[in-house]
Specification:
The structure is a single chain. This protein has about 100 residues and is mostly beta strands. It has a single domain (about 30-104), classed as OB fold (Dihydrolipoamide Acetyltransferase, E2P). It is built from one helix and six strands; from the N terminus they run αββββββ. The protein has one helix at about 20-25, and strands at about 35-45, 50-55, 60-65, 70, 85-90, 95-104. The chain has a six-stranded mixed sheet, with no helix packed on it. The radius of gyration is 15 Å and the shape is globular.
């Protein structure tokens, strides 16, 4: 008896719909990529770290030294509080950290 596993793209699970319709409408970004979307909630440029708030209101830590920036705005000067971003999370021994960041 063999079981076939179907390959699925990242982030294939649907988001819960309670209260997210308004939040999803507020973030106007290119939806052709599969990055989870959010915005920079807190950023300390002199210390080199900050937090991204996702669509559910959770905050994820990022550090400039650990980031791989992608996209047309792949420059650290575009990272500001309120900037719309796409990101990819990596689990570390200190919890989830953002490793890839795309500023829209």
């Amino acid at each position: 008896m063999s079981t076939q596993v179907t390959a699925r793209p990242p982030n294939w699970l649907p988001l819960p719909q309670a209260g997210l319709a308004k939040k999803a409408a507020e973030i106007q970004v290119d939806t052709n990529d599969l990055f989870p979307k959010g915005e920079v909630a807190i950023f300390y440029p002199n210390q080199g770290y900050g937090y991204i708030k996702d669509r559910n209101g959770n905050e994820v830590y990022f550090k400039l030294e650990e980031l791989d920036l992608v996209g047309p705005k792949a420059d650290k000067s575009h990272i500001t509080v309120g900037a719309k971003v796409g990101y990819d999370i990596s689990c570390t021994s200190h919890g989830p950290h953002v490793r890839i960041l795309k500023v829209y």
